[in-house]
Specification:
membrane, elongated, mainly alpha, 3 helices, endoplasmic reticulum
Length: 51
């Protein structure tokens, strides 16, 4: 019974996220796209430069 409850909770969380994330993305599309375009430092490049 415990395994079934965990699986159902996971399904419920996925269901809620699948219906919430697209709405939030449409609402905040400009901010999300601006954040996604920012370059992120690569840890590999930082390690190579410090050697």
């Amino acid at each position: 019974m415990g395994n079934g409850f965990n699986f159902l909770a996971l399904l419920y969380i996925c269901f809620v996220l699948l219906h919430t994330v697209p709405v939030l993305y449409e609402k905040y599309e400009d901010q999300v796209d601006a954040f996604a375009e920012k370059p992120r430092p690569s840890s590999r490049n930082n390690m190579l430069c410090s050697m």
